[in-house]
Amino acid sequence: MSEQPPAIAGRTVLVAGLGVSGVAAARVLLDRQARVLLTDAAQPPAVTELTGAGATWLGALEALPDGVDLVVTSPGWRPDAPLLADAAARGVEVIGEPELAWRLRVPGPDGTPAPWLAVTGTNGKTTTVTMLETVLTAAGRRAVAAGNVGRPLVEVVTALADDGSPAYDVIAVELSSFQLHWSSSLAPAAAAVLNVADDHTDWHGSFAAYRDAKARILERSPVAVADAGDPVAAGLVAGHPGRVTVTLGEPAPGQLGVRAGVLVDRAFAADPGGEVLMARADLPVPGPHNTVNALAAAALARAAGVPAEAVELGLAGFTGGAHRNVLVATIDGVDYVDDSKATNPHAAGASLAAYPRVVWIAGGLLKGADVDPLVAAVAPRLAGAVLLGRDRAVVARSLARHAPSVPVVEVASGNDGAVDADRPDAETAMTRVVAAAATLARPGDTVLLAPAAASMDVFRDYGHRGRAFADAVRALR
Fold first, then answer.
1. Among 46, 276, 295, 389, who pairs with 246 as Cys (CB 3.0-4.6 Å)?
2. By residue range, what is the domain housing residue 416?
3. Are 123 and 254 in a shared domain?
4. Domain containing 72 — which CATH number?
5. How far from 282 is each of 14, 125, 162, 293, CA to CA, in Å?
6. Burial class (CB in 10 A: 0-12, 13-18, 19+), 281
7. How many CB atoms lie under 10 A from the CB of residue 7?
8. Is residue 7 included in any domain, yes or no?
């Protein structure tokens, strides 16, 4: 490789947490000739590879070893973890993998690294960033979606093409509040906060701290995008000199919105009246929330100079992500839709708003979130509800208050609150849930898995929950 960056080469870096991003960070740090130390609660298989490449495994730690210059932490580690608290007390910098990636970006032929177009929000991040990737690709850019969406940023920013230049022209970056908490110098070319709702306060300590972590994405970005319909997100960009907002209504100057069923750009268009992007009906994913996501992706792409034609081509070809409003099957006139990724009330509300009459499958780990506002808002749409998971009784009580005429079925699982990774009762429980929903639905209804809760009480993760739902629906046939 070329000469190593002096900020990393020869420094002692402790990688705390060896999930996907931690392992990727350790590999890149070793390649950059850092002295790499490794710690985690248990020893994962990747330790063998990393120690073979020169890293040192220290096992579980609660105090910072002497001589450490920098800590790169997993996003799952809370700031009050003893090791991280000790690092802070000693004045040793703690950063996340995205911040490390920002510092290790490889310059292109013009001397500048590939720009980042960054997205955060309580919900819609992955959909928006993958929409953005498809639009950038349609524009002929060498683009990739990375970050919280799955692929570690340190891998992307150090990837090289055959000629030794950076592999990508532009990077669509998804950032969580955890990742942003541990970031200090990120400066995306354009950044979006889609929405900010009550979530992850157990990690951040308060809603204000969670909101402020989201706001970090905007601090050094010349373009700040937000949904005008979300009061918190709109408030975060209100005083920004590069403010751009998106709306489901007629766009004003500085906005992207919807005019007579057409997506229109009045923020980046040369014509003050706006430039047509695409017909809303040609957007292949349903729901007002996905229209907002598409507008936000378009805004970031337009900020990067992408023409309207590429926006239309990319968005029209977007297929959506797994477990995000995916139509599994239509049986006896009833649509069965998997939105297992709706793991909090805000996401579930957006999903429910996309369908006029719903048999709602909900429940799981609410993480302290209040479901009353959601249930009160969606009650008129509900044809029935089937509840599963540890906190199903909380949802049932809310339904009794706000939708007393809606039939409710509760399904118990032998795994409620369990931690067994095999979870032998999960599929059986979901089969009972889907069967109960089928009895409540009539032709024209949608049976919607939008749990408003996390999944780990019954399932391994939201993907396991979604797959169990899809299997149970197919079994109805």
1. 295
2. 326-476
3. yes
4. 3.40.50.720
5. 49, 21, 37, 14
6. exposed
7. 13
8. no
**pLDDT over threshold 90, residue 395:** yes
Looking up residue 126, the CATH number of its domain turns out to be 3.40.1190.10
pLDDT reading at 419 higher than 50: no
| Structure tokens belonging to residue 408 | 């409710």
Closest to 228 measured CA to CA, from 188, 258, 186, 189: 258
Domains in the chain, number: 3
Q: What is the pLDDT of residues 94-151, one digit of tens each?
A: 999 999 999 999 999 899 999 999 999 998 999 999 999 999 999 999 999 999 987 8
Q: Where are the beta strands (DSSP E) in 423-476?
A: 446-449
Q: CB-based contacts of 439: which residues, under 8 Å, 6+ apart?
A: none
- Mention every residue, 6+ apart, whose C-beta is less than 8 A from residue 244: 223, 224, 225, 226, 237, 254, 255, 256, 267, 268, 299, 303
The pTM (predicted TM-score) of the whole model is 0.79
Q: Where are the alpha helices (DSSP H) in 108-150?
A: 125-138
| Amino acid making up residue 209 | A
